[in-house]
Design brief:
single chain, globular, alpha+beta, about 10% strand, 2 strands
Length: about 70
C-alpha cells in the first residue's frame, strides 16, 4: 500500500501518508512508509499497547488470520 499512496494524488493520499501506521510482521526488517512502525511481538500484547496510546480510533487492514 505504501508505494501507491506515497505517489498518489488522490484526496486520500495525504491522510494515508500522515496518519501513524503499525505493520504486524515477524519477518519485516524495516518500515519505509512515513509514520510507520513494525510490531513483532504477540498480537494481543501489541494491540493492547496501541489501545493504551493517546489518539483516536484504530483501523485494521488485514486478512482473516489477522482478524
Amino acid at each position: 500500500m505504501g508505494p501507491y499512496w506515497q505517489k498518489s494524488e488522490d484526496a486520500y493520499a495525504a491522510p494515508m501518508n500522515d496518519i501513524p501506521k503499525v505493520v504486524f510482521s515477524k519477518t519485516l526488517k524495516e518500515a519505509t512508509w512515513p509514520e510507520s512502525s513494525i510490531a513483532k511481538g504477540d498480537l494481543h500484547e501489541e494491540i493492547a499497547k496501541l489501545k493504551k496510546q493517546a489518539g483516536g480510533e484504530i483501523i485494521a487492514w488485514g486478512g482473516a488470520g489477522f482478524a
